[in-house]
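Q: Hi! Curious about what Solute carrier organic anion transporter family member looks like structurally. Here's the sequence.
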Amino acid sequence: MEEPGKRVATRGVTCFSKIKMFLLALTGAYVAKSLSGIYMNSMLTQIERQFNIPTSIVGFINGSFEIGNLLFIIFVSYFGTKLHRPIVIGVGCVVMGLGCFLISLPHFLMGRYEYEKTISPSNNLSSNSFLCSGNRSQTLTPTPDPKECSKEIKSLMWIYVMVGNLIRGIGETPIMPLGISYIEDFAKSENSPLYIAILETGKIVGPLIGLLLASFCTTLYVDIGSVNTDDLTIALTDTRWVGAWWIGFLICAGVNVLTSIPFFFLPKTLPKEGLEDNADVTKSNEKEKHREKAMGKKRGITKDFLPFMKSLFCNPIYVLFTLISVLQINSFIITFTFMPKYLEQQYGKSTAEIIFLIGVYSLPPICIGYLIGGLIMKKFKITVKKAAYIAFCLSLIEYLLFFLNFMWTCDNFPVAGLTTSYEHERIQQPLYVKKNVLAECSKTCNCLTKTWDPVCGDNGLSYMSACLAGCENSDGTGINMVFQNCSCIQSSGSSSAVLGLCNKSPDCTIKLQYFLIVSVFSYFIFSLAVIPGYMVLLRCTKSEEKSLGVGLHTFFIRVFGGIPTPIYFGALIDRTCLHWGTLKCGEPGACRMYDINEYSCFQQAHLHWVASSSKRIKLPRVNLHSKTFEEVPTP
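A: Let's find out. The predicted structure is below.
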């Protein structure tokens, strides 16, 4: 009577313990981690404006995720295989949720966001002090207040964001190496590429949701619910606008915690896929477990760590693949970290619109490419040597194709005294090097010369403030305010101006479409190369070294790509800043406008360096025909 009961229970556990159940749970974890990751990258510009920090610090905040991942990746990759891998992955998901919650915490600890402005939202007599007036006894200048500097600079509330991102990196550590090794251990070798392709697809579904969430949150004002948005004098396209970035992080925290639940109910080991009902195999697995326990007691848990490390470093294919991956990740990180800022400045669109366009044009082709790459590897049983050639060639083609995007460039915003002179009206010319903010038409106005509160004149030229445009009167309230009798605006109209920078030419919108169309093909080719590349990484290492090999590969990517790249490139972006925002105490804050031509040159130079370096790394014949490849089974 007991045997049937046991048989039913065992059958139920076996059914629940199939590799596909783990694959489903792991795909959910991939969706959650990529959701929070892409949302973080999309909100970097909002965080920069919220805390009034330069891009170099933003790069450091972004790199803190890699630092957290780096601290535990090797140890988790090695020791995790000896522990209960699903539970370790579940704990990691919970830690990621904690990190996301900590990132959102500064919003509740600091006061309301006060953007730099010279304009009062109301229209009364006292608010006309921001307009041109020659009757003032002294020039308007911001009054330095040491207490304000202490509040704005030394409070360092952005450290909460950095620490939260670091904790998020720690939590993500076990998901990929332990998840991939778990699938490799218990899945059929011919199914492994398809399963990994499904996981990579999950990494695309997450960013797709994340970008849509980021686009929505960016349209909401950061202090929504506590301020009257009708009184705002900035629009979505304004570089002082800050969206409700904290809402998305709270959602990401909840999603990460929910995805952790299934892992606590999954077993430590599984029968090999396709052999679940084979009694001989079950007995063989039991004997294998006893043998592993005996070997563990005899050798110790750490005795084979150094031999594994030596074996990986002496594996030429593994070392070569890791080197190419480091170069590849350099361009990848720059593209996804700073691309929203670049497109926003290049084409004059709002952050919300740019994030939405990136999601629509880039993620679907990547998702399709992942699935096609996995199906091709499974259908044609491509050998590892062929997979190496395919991945290498496709990556180079993708780099060269992406270079075409830098042909579709626009001029800088025409800002009088900053990018063009007061005498020129929308004339395309090199960057105005004199930077004479004051002109004859506004010298007697006693204007603030550092405050960024731009207006657009009827002549198509932007001015840093209504005062610097020589405007004497204003009409309306909030974002609908109109300035009149502007002496610096020379046009046949009423010489008036409205809030915000002037829109870029219609040709710029067309160039943005070209950029996005080329990006579709670039991302598709890139995604086709990912699965063959993954197969090279997994098949060029021994089965017992796979988890450590994946972890060590990730370790080098973090050290030489993920951490330094956003920091040094953020510093390069700061060098292209044309005008810094001003804090209440007079210190510089976040950058309001960049020299987009120089910015673009930095992007091109970096991609050229990556592509040329990849070309110099040739695949030696000795390595391709070495025993390393011949001994490893192909899918």
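A: A fun detail: The mean pLDDT is 77.
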